[in-house]
Every structure is written in structure tokens, then in C-alpha cells.
Amino acid sequence: MTQNSVNSKNPLIQSIYNISNSAVTITSYIPIDGSVPQKTEGNEVMTCSITPTKSTNLIIVKAFVWARLSANPGANFSMALFQDDTSNAIAVSKPNITNAAGWLTNGMLYFAKVSGTTSSTTFKLRCGRYNTNYVVNYAEFGGVQTSSMEVMEIKA
Questions:
Q1: What is the CATH number of the domain that holds 83?
Q2: Residue 136 CB: number of other CB atoms within 10 A?
Q3: Residue 14 φ/ψ, nearest 5 degrees
């Protein structure tokens, strides 16, 4: 994880990010149904921790992952965001369906909230398969293609 600080004239107070090209094979399900994804579903692929400076500031989380379908055309995967040890996901994204084994797809997730704390908090990104395995953070092009997660604190 890396931290960026910006000058005091900018509303961005801090930006913490995690960039990865380490492959994670997604073998666990996140059911695509009417239930909220749980912290035991899917596989954790990335985390990012931040300590907000004010409890009234805005926290924004952005995540982008590359994924390669292992087999079975027409499969999909879901992304779920969790905070600390909360059981229920606080945000979910269901990326594009891929059409053939070996095809590359990607997913994005965006979430914003008032921080509500000045204690360290960790955001956890989990990805889950629906009907076949995926490899997330798949690094095409010699490893320069990366997945990332960023947590920003914005001045209220």
C-alpha cells in the first residue's frame, strides 16, 4: 500500500492505494440472488486501510480488477466491498459476462460514505464466481496490466 498526500488547497486529504498483478484464483461463490453478500463468500483479493483525519470527512473507495475466465463461456463474477469485520457487504458490483474460456474481462466498484471515525479502518475487496473459476488480478502484457484499489479522504 502507498499513501499520497496533497497540498492544503486541494479537498483531497489523503489517498491510500493498493496496486497488484498477483493472480488470485476465485473458487468461492458470491450468489447472484436477493441476499446481501457475506464476508465468508468469494475470495479476498485486495485490502486497503486508512485512518481518517476527521469523522465528518468523506471516504471514497474505488476498485478495478482484471479477471480471466478459466472455463465455460457465459460466466460471470461479482465484486463485494466490506469494511473491517462487518458481515454484510457495503457495496457490490457485477461486471460484464465473458463469452469464452480464456477471455479477459474487468470490473469496477465505487463507494462513498462519511467516515464516521478517526480510527484506522480497512476496506476489503472480495470477488466471487457464479458458475466457473476466475483468475483475478490477471497480469497480461508482461505484468504491466494491474488491478487496483484506492481509498481517499475528501475534506468535508
A1: 2.60.120.1340
A2: 27
A3: -155, 155
| Number of domains forming the structure of the chain | 1
Q: How far apart are CA 74 and CA 125, in angstroms?
A: 23
Residues 74, 138: Cα–Cα separation, whole Å = 19
Q: Which domain holds residue 34?
A: 2-154
What is the distance between the alpha carbons of residues 23 and 87, in angstroms, rounded to a whole number?
Answer: 25
Spatial distance between the Cα atoms of 10 and 17, rounded to a whole number of angstroms: 18
d(CA 10, CA 60): 15
pTM > 0.90: no
Place of cell 458458475: 131
Write out the DSSP string of 81-143: EEETT-SB-SEEE--PPP-STT-EEEEEEEEEEE---SS-EEEEEEEEESSS-EEET---GGG
Cβ 128 vs Cβ 35: under 8 Å: no
Residue-wise pLDDT for 94-145, tens only, equals 866 666 666 777 889 999 999 999 999 999 999 988 766 666 666 667 777 7
